[in-house]
Amino acid sequence: xxxxxxxDLSVWRRLAPGGMLLVGSGLAVTLDASARRSSGTPLxxxxxxxxxxxxxxxxxxxxxxxxxxxxxxxDAATRTPRP
Length: 83
Hints:
The chain is mainly α and 83 residues long. Helix content is 84%, strand content 0%. The two termini are 30 Å apart.
């Protein structure tokens, strides 16, 4: 059974902010790892931190992409046809 437009809108309202938060957090963690690399921190430390940051960025982009898809489905379902 396909989701209703109201369900699509509800999912969009939940996923979009979460996706943006994950992208921002992931970028902050990745940039911190880059700074650690420049300051001479041991290899394993900055590689692990940078990898975690990139995982957060990609998870955020996936959530945000799903949110935009659901918003598009909602908008398409509620659009009034042109005469």
